[in-house]
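Sequence in, structure out.
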Amino acid sequence: MTPTESNPTQRHRRLGLVLLLLFALAMVMGPGPGLRLVNPEPSAARESLLFLGLPVIYAWGLFWYGVQAAVVVTACLTIWKPSDD
């Protein structure tokens, strides 16, 4: 096996690890302790409860769902391609 043949495998492995860590971060931050970061005080002004017209907590969850969807699409287009072997 020549070094050029193993290079794509190493890149796929590194990308897979990065995507795995990013997906795990999104799994934790979306529904877990990340909610405590954005959860506004109940007595806060109405403007601080909304982000682009959505409740802050809902927008936070949608953001992390978008991160998860981007990870899956990236993995699908780069790593999960069928091999020619």
